[in-house]
Specification:
With about 160 residues, this protein is mainly β. Helices cover about 10% and strands about 45% of the residues.
Length: about 160
């Protein structure tokens, strides 16, 4: 391997929409690092967002690259492929809890909070208090990776 590996651009890309706290929506591609052959796209996006980098590159559709501060991200949306069960999620068991996530600016995202947790940690409070920066909320057509710092509250959306 050459000495320039630190400057190499990862080959895997994911089309996303980054929603900023200001309400702006930026469409483009993020560059996913190689984790392993067994890692699902969901795990790669999660690893990308959970790393310690303050900024991340977003290649926008006009061809330029913008560097986005994670602290100003409200959430990142990924539209599901035709069959989301193929290659997007891992085969690991996930808990799914219906929620409504409300932001300080009045916006909200409703769907199923999903988390890979052991059976004894499946309460909503357990999932919200995981040592992660982002929550994963699956809607009908997309998954939203929600910045916990942008949230005002999360409400259990249990239908009776």
């Amino acid at each position: 391997m050459s000495g320039n590996a630190a400057f190499a651009v990862p080959k895997d890309r994911q089309e996303v929409t980054v929603r900023l706290e200001t309400g702006a929506a930026l469409k483009g591609e993020i560059f996913l690092e190689y984790i392993s052959n067994d890692a699902s796209n969901h795990q790669k996006v999660t690893a990308f967002l959970e790393n310690d980098n303050t900024f991340f590159p977003l290649k926008v559709h006009n061809g330029s690259t913008e560097f986005i501060s994670k602290k100003n991200v409200q959430y990142v949306e990924v539209i599901f492929p035709e069959n989301p069960n193929v290659n997007y999620f891992s085969s690991l068991p996930m808990v799914s809890i219906p929620v409504n996530a409300l932001f300080g600016n009045g916006e909200s995202v409703s769907g199923d909070l999903i988390a890979e947790v052991p059976a004894e940690r499946t309460r909503l409070s357990d999932c919200l208090n995981l040592q992660t920066k982002f929550l994963n909320v699956k809607t009908d057509s997309k998954i939203c990776y929600i910045n916990k710092d942008a949230l005002q509250k999360v409400v259990h959306d249990g239908k009776v």
